[in-house]
Design a protein that fits this description.
This protein has 188 residues and is of the alpha+beta class. The chain is 12% helix and 29% strand. Strands 1, 2, 3, 4, 5 and 6 form a six-stranded antiparallel β-sheet that branches.
Length: 188
């Protein structure tokens, strides 16, 4: 048991004063203009790699589809070579889409518009949710194609016996970066 009034200086919490924040259904599968508005480098649960956790917010004239959140986890250092390869290709696609061809810090990705290909995955435990299946520039109409038909080289997966080096993308003391809403987002 816990006395909620202790938290609110002897007052009850009034549910009528706070929007309950209903759970949202996934947005339909499609391409959406979006920005990455949060980026955080995190260590894997097993402690043998790192992933870049990105949160994207959609930019849409339809209020039901505007400012919807979709997440991507990019396994930039992983003992699973395929997972690492997919993450590196996704990071390359993001970089090409926003015009940042060399990325030294995750903050360089933030608040730059791009298109994300959103799909719906049905999770047996949590139900349907959105996943990101692709990235391309805002002004590109066709599927993303690598510049010059070349793909980025993929680094070898670290040996399972070695402790992986922390990716150099995190250069500041803080691994979590949040930026203010850019001017092109409606409502500002």
């Amino acid at each position: 048991m816990g006395d909620i009034t202790d938290v609110y200086d002897g007052n009850d919490f009034n549910c009528n004063e706070v929007d309950p924040g209903n759970v949202s259904d996934p947005i339909p599968s499609d391409w959406y203009v979006a920005i990455a508005d949060e980026a955080e480098m995190k260590e894997t649960k097993a402690g043998d790699g790192y992933y870049l956790k990105l949160r994207f917010s959609t930019i849409n004239d339809n209020p039901a589809l505007n400012n919807r959140k979709v997440w991507a986890n990019l396994n930039l250092r992983n003992k699973n070579a395929k997972a690492q390869e997919i993450a590196m290709r996704d990071l390359s696609a993001i970089g090409h889409a926003i015009g940042e061809l060399k990325i030294g810090d995750s903050s360089e990705i933030l608040n730059k518009p791009l298109k994300i290909k959103v799909a719906i995955k049905d999770d047996t435990q949590y139900g349907p949710s959105n996943v990101i299946k692709g990235y391309k520039p805002v002004n590109e109409k066709n599927e993303y194609k690598p510049v010059g038909g070349q793909t980025a080289p993929v680094a070898a997966s670290p040996d399972a016996k070695q402790s992986p080096a922390r990716p150099q993308a995190v250069t500041s003391g803080s691994t979590s970066v949040k930026k203010s809403t850019p001017p092109w987002v409606k409502g500002k």
